[in-house]
Automatic annotation (TrEMBL):
CDD domains: RRM1_Hu, RRM2_Hu, RRM3_Hu
Name of the featured protein: RRM domain-containing protein
SMART domains with a match to the protein in the record: RRM, RRM_1
Gene Ontology MF terms: RNA binding
Species for this entry: Tetragonisca angustula
Family membership noted in the UniProt record: Belongs to the RRM elav family.
Domain annotation RRM: ranges: 28-106, 114-194, 275-353
InterPro entries on file: ELAD_HU_SF, Elav_RRM1, Hud_Sxl_RNA, Nucleotide-bd_a/b_plait_sf, RBD_domain_sf, RRM_dom, RRM_euk-type
A single Gene Ontology CC term: ribonucleoprotein complex
Keyword presence, Ubl conjugation: no
Keywords: Repeat, RNA-binding
Keyword Repeat in record: yes
Length: 358
DNA sequence: TGCGATT
């Protein structure tokens, strides 16, 4: 039912190395990394509220510029919602990013300044190699090797974030200036630039991929081109729902008559802010995360809504997605209209005002 | 077939 040659399944662990269950009271608080630059706190809240009731939500911003640092925290009331959020939202593609959702560690001084910058790495060293090299000195939270955008080859530079600063300090002492086996050049290991200290226009190294870097470390997954939408991420919690392409790739042809016409109907699509999109033929068990996964890759999504029967709580077969930018909405519609989701062919268009005669 | 009643 899957294995259509065009299906793309993203193996989503990004090499993250968290694993221990030895955490204490962090069963409701999540850290969300690799958020799209433009994503607002409200949009984050909207996304995570699709899982369960959110107690609090905080997008971390640059103290001076107010710009998003690309990560934030979401605290749920219920631990089971937090767990579900990890299961269904981790690896979600939003615009040019793939977000990471994991339990937040308890905030403390000891975990700050535990990020290391490593250079002089042999070009053939993998992320796993890097972790193996550093793992003797502590618990690795994240690791990453920077790759050339075009060639995908290692730049010989990477980052290691330890759980504790003391672990990072020890790794510096033990590894700085040493020559990895099989290499000829010594590596440099030092503390990474701390975004909060450097008030320069230096992007926060630990969390935000630089603008030019469209890629994150890990295996060379091919980021999907904007006009070549390859649905992915088998919808974890909901089960199967493997997305498949059943339709030729479409190009965005400007001024596709119907699209434009519909979107301009009075009082319809553009309600205050954003363009509302109607999605029809959703399965009864559809949840919000399905809509996020479908539309997220195309651009800024403000909100999604699955319409449910009040008695059965099952989806009534349709839903709505509000996107910020017209262009992105058009591409999303043209790309998703006619796609097969499960065994259903979706119909996607700008929302019109059918019933509800104001 | 179809276009949000839980702020």
């Amino acid at each position: 039912m899957m294995a259509n040659g065009m299906d793309t399944v993203v193996q989503q662990n990004g090499g993250a190395t968290l694993g221990q269950a030895s955490q204490e009271e962090s069963k409701t608080n999540l850290i969300v990394n690799y958020l799209p630059q433009s994503m607002t706190q409200d949009e984050i809240r909207s996304l995570f509220s699709s899982i369960g009731e959110v107690e609090s939500c905080k997008l971390i911003r640059d103290k001076l510029t107010g710009q998003s640092l690309g990560y934030g925290f979401v605290n749920y009331h219920r631990p089971e919602d937090a767990e579900k959020a990890i299961n269904t939202l981790n690896g979600l593609r939003l615009q040019n990013k793939t977000i990471k959702v994991s339990y937040a560690r308890p905030s403390s001084e000891a975990i700050k300044g535990a990020n290391l910058y490593v250079s002089g790495l042999p070009k053939n060293m993998t992320q796993q190699d890097l972790e193996n090299l550093f793992s003797p000195y502590g618990r690795i939270i994240t690791s990453r090797i920077l790759c050339d955008n075009i060639t995908g080859l290692s730049k010989g530079v990477g980052f290691i974030r330890f759980d504790q600063r003391v672990e990072a300090e020890r790794a510096i002492q033990e590894l700085n200036g040493t020559i990895p086996k099989g290499s000829s050049e010594p590596i440099t290991v030092k503390f990474a630039n701390n975004p909060s200290n450097n008030n320069k226009a230096i992007p926060p190294l630990a969390y935000l991929a630089p603008q030019a870097t469209r890629r994150y470390g890990g295996p060379i997954h091919h980021p999907t081109g904007r006009f070549r939408y390859i649905p992915l991420s088998p919808l974890s919690s909901t089960g199967k729902a493997m997305l498949a392409i059943n339709k030729g790739l479409q190009r965005y042809s400007p001024l596709a008559g119907d699209l434009l016409a519909n979107s301009m109907l009075p009082g319809n699509a553009m309600n205050g802010s954003g363009w509302c999109i109607f999605v029809y033929n959703l399965a009864p068990e559809t949840e919000e995360n399905v809509l996020w996964q479908l539309f997220g890759p195309f651009g800024a999504v403000q909100s999604v809504k699955v319409i449910r029967d009040l008695q059965t709580n099952k989806c009534k077969g349709f839903g709505f997605v509000t996107m910020t930018n017209y262009d992105e909405a058009v591409v999303a519609i043209q790309s998703l209209n006619g796609y097969t989701l499960g065994n259903r062919v979706l119909q996607v268009s700008f929302k019109t005002n059918k019933s509800k005669a104001a």
